[in-house]
Amino acid sequence: MALERIENGVLPRLDRRAFLVGSAAGLGALGLAGCVNTDGALRAEAAKTYGPMPGEKFPIPATDISKLDPKYFRRTVPYVTKEAAGTIVVDPRNFYVYRVEGDGTATRYGANVGRDGFLWSGDAYVGRKSEWATWTPPKEMIKRQPEAAKYARGMPGGLDNPLGARTLHLYQNGAYTLYTIYASSDPDTIGSGITSGCVGLLSQDMIHLYAQTPVKTKVVVLPA
Description:
Elements: H1 2-7, H2 16-49, E1 75-78, E2 88-91, E3 96-100, E4 105-110, E5 113-114, E6 122-131, H3 139-144, E7 166-172, E8 175-184, E9 193-195, E10 199-202, H4 203-211, E11 218-221
Pfam families: YkuD (PF03734)
Family: Belongs to the YkuD family.
Keywords: Cell shape, Cell wall biogenesis/degradation, Glycosyltransferase, Hydrolase, Lipoprotein, Peptidoglycan synthesis, Transferase
């Protein structure tokens, strides 16, 4: 009310100290309200981005974004690079995956990455793509985790499958590296190192990236 009256040129007679204190309090409240509204708008938009996908072969439920740090929400960000448009850049140190857009920007996704001892870096490319892929644990994993042996002949695609709804299989020099960029249904994992070298995006983000990524797309994994 006071601010409206000031704008209309009808400020009542007040001593200077009372006016300054009152204005500071009012403006402070406006500032806090702006932060709350901005955060609320951000989360409202994220709720749409990470909403349910009932049309999938195995319907994907909405992601619980309350478990996701807002810095990992999908967004378009300034990004200067010499890499060509469409290139995927993995930044394991900061838990991000970028898709270079070619106009000084990139689409940025929050990610989980390899845990200590399983991190790697270098150039690769997408050798093949899979939707609801069968997951077969490598022999090395079965040795480390004998409980995975029951899937030695493959685990069919589905919501419980570790590869999730979409998978980009990474190759180097014509050979499959056994590393993938895959879909995760667990927001708690984003922003952490938990895998055996693979990179996970939330299902909604992975489907978004997958749709824009043809076979042979270059993938750059930065040092951690």
